[in-house]
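Hello Y.,

Per our agreement to keep a running log of every chain we model this quarter, I'm adding this entry. I've kept the format consistent with earlier entries: sequence first, then predicted structure.
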Amino acid sequence: MRRVLLLAGIMVLLVAASATGAAAADKPLRWHFDTGFSGVAGKAGDAIQDGWTIGFGAAWAPKPNSSISYRFDVSYDWWDVNTGDLDLDSDIPGNEARIDDGDVDQWSVRAGVMWESHGDKAKLVLGAGIGGYREYAKVSEFVYVPGYICDPWYWWYCYPGLVPGEVNLADKALTKFGYYASIGVSFPLTNSEIFLEAQYHWVNIETYYQTYPIVVGWRW
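Predicted structure for the entry above:
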């Protein structure tokens, strides 16, 4: 539900901003929205499965028709934990817990420089910058706990029994600085443009880990 609400909120902002798309195209400040695949590389990729990303931001050009812009982004990434490669028993003596599920979420706020070539049909776009990355990870186990079972097909009668639940085995949140670089291509439209971009993020969280989102977006 949290992810659905996040997507709905960003889409509302996107639709609202599109109403002024024609005017924004003539201004030095341009907004953008992107979403797509988010891969995890390095040692972290052994424990975290590839996931998805969604982002919103702006690019500001200090001069009209300048190839250089200052870019700002806010992104949200989410991945699943590869539970088959995790074993709490090896880390906690006497522990008999079994990891059934796990999630990793990441918020990032970034600032950098973006360079665009000139062209009417396609433009090369390069970027680099720094940012703050907040990662939250948790692993859990499915268990049965005492509760009440309500059967809607049996006169809405409720009776005590065992119901499924989820126990949080471990969680951790970290906030660190990181760096990113990007390369992509954009295709100008009448008052906006669409773009395809590959990003590489290098984050200083304990042992460094890397992510490589591949996104499609709209800038107006």
